[in-house]
Write a structure and sequence with these properties.
single chain; 307 residues; alpha/beta; Rossmann fold; six-stranded mixed β-sheet; four-stranded antiparallel β-sheet; 14 strands; 21% strand; globular; binds adenosine-5'-triphosphate; transport; antibiotic resistance; ATP-binding
Length: 307
């Protein structure tokens, strides 16, 4: 799908699939287009081109209204009491009063904020407000979850609670799409991830597949060896502390022999790049390609002018 705000092209042919029961991470720099894409899924913003499909057919407004959504700007009424507000939201999405009250009680307890049920939202800490915001996305038992940076500002315990809730919802078959800048968390939690840049997906797939597609590095820890012990070892292209980048044809056993000659080897292991390393790589390669294309275009223009 595509979407511009005036001159700004926020989404540029973005294509994304989230399967039933899948936790899908949505990753990209500030301004990459994540919130715009989520708002289009929700139906609060329209796309200039493209469409959102649910179960293979264009999504209806009725389905969009039932999506469990956690907006980035958060959307609770500060002066309304926590439980009252959640019951109100659940009823707006069609739950009868008794079921709404029971569901609100269940989620407040699960999210560890039941003691704040009678407090005004504005009196809660930001992290607790966020737990309530998640409860607001869940109280009506939605068939789809779309969460815009649900983990930002949460303490480690709240991160664990939130992660567990998302896993449970996915296990029930709910597709879960969430954006985050916490890539270690995305790596741990997600089945699949899409990295977007300038409104386009630049890498997507199961986290393990993406990681195994990146260049593996050899981690070698040698006690007491000089920092540059690996320089000059055949096949070693680059040394970054304990991490070595090897040429494809390099023999790692030769590296091991060189390491043993430098001192006692305490660790020797191949390591796949983390999602964070992969992200940096994907984004910087994109930048380099864009710069190269811009340079080519400028050279072509100059050549044309000179002719
Ligand atoms: N209402 C708006 N009016 C004009 N431009 C907008 C509007 N909303 C977003 N944009 C622009 O669209 C682009 C995508 O923004 P968006 O908020 O979707 O990014 P994001 O990936 O969610 O970023 P962040 O990680 O910072 O939340 C940016 O260039 C942004 O400045």
């Amino acid at each position: 799908m595509s979407r511009s705000y005036g001159e700004v092209r926020a989404l540029d042919g973005l294509d994304l699939d989230v399967g039933a029961g899948e936790i899908h991470g949505f990753v990209g720099g500030n301004g990459a287009g994540k919130t715009t894409a989520m708002r289009i899924v929700l139906g609060v913003l329209s796309a200039d081109a493209g469409e959102v499909r649910w179960g293979g057919v264009p999504i209806t407004t009725e389905v969009q209204r039932t999506i469990g959504y956690m907006p980035e700007e958060r959307g609770l009424y500060p002066k309304m009491k926590v439980a009252e507000q959640l019951v109100y939201l659940a009823r707006m999405r069609g739950l009868p009063r008794d079921r709404a009250v029971a569901s609100v009680g269940k989620w407040l307890e699960r999210l560890g904020v039941e003691a704040r049920a009678g407090d005004e939202v504005q009196k809660l800490s930001l992290g607790n407000q966020q737990r309530v915001q998640l409860a607001a996305a869940l109280v009506h038992d939605p068939a789809i979850l779309v969460l815009d940076e649900p983990f930002s500002g949460l303490d480690p315990v709240a991160v664990d609670v939130m992660s567990e809730v998302l896993r449970d919802k996915a296990a029930e078959g709910v597709p879960v799409l969430f954006s985050s800048h916490q890539l270690d968390l995305v790596e741990r939690l997600c089945d699949r991830v899409a990295i977007i840049k300038d409104g386009t997906v630049v890498a997507a797939g199961p986290v393990d597949d993406l990681r195994s597609g990146g260049d593996a590095r050899l981690v070698v820890r040698v006690d007491g060896a000089p920092d540059d012990w690996a320089s000059g070892v055949p096949g070693v292209l680059h040394q970054d502390g304990e991490a070595l980048t090897l040429a494809p044809e390099a023999d790692d056993q030769e590296v091991l022999r060189a390491a043993l000659a430098a001192g006692p080897v305490r660790e020797f292991a191949w390591r796949r790049p983390s999602l964070t390393e992969l992200y940096r790589h994907v984004v910087s390669v994109e930048d380099a390609e864009n710069a190269e294309n811009a340079e080519k275009a400028e050279n072509a223009e100059n050549a044309e002018e000179a002719a």
